[in-house]
Write a structure and sequence with these properties.
Layout: E1 9-15, E2 21-28, H1 33-51, E3 69-72, E4 75-83, H2 84-89
Antiparallel strand pairs: 1-2, 1-4, 3-4
Amino acid sequence: MMTYDEPTYYEITAAHPDGRRYLVCYANGSPSGVRLRRCICERGRAIIDTLGLPEDAAFGKITVKPWPHTYIGDWRIGYTARTKRQIIMGNELRHPLVRVREN
């Protein structure tokens, strides 16, 4: 059960224009480019492998508006503006790309 004194975790996903979507992680604290970069660095190999991208695939520059995000190939990796609490309350927990760790 979540309580009011627990930190807020924001959802970071990998989303493809065709509708495929994977949960990458939940990041603790306000959405930021620094937290997104840390999430990607910790899970970069798993992201590339799961999305079926080539070994030499490179992440693009992180853009912070409207929410921090970047691209790798056709995939958008970024915050969704949804909190973990909203997802739990909506009974929408997604299967993670990799083991979900709260940063």
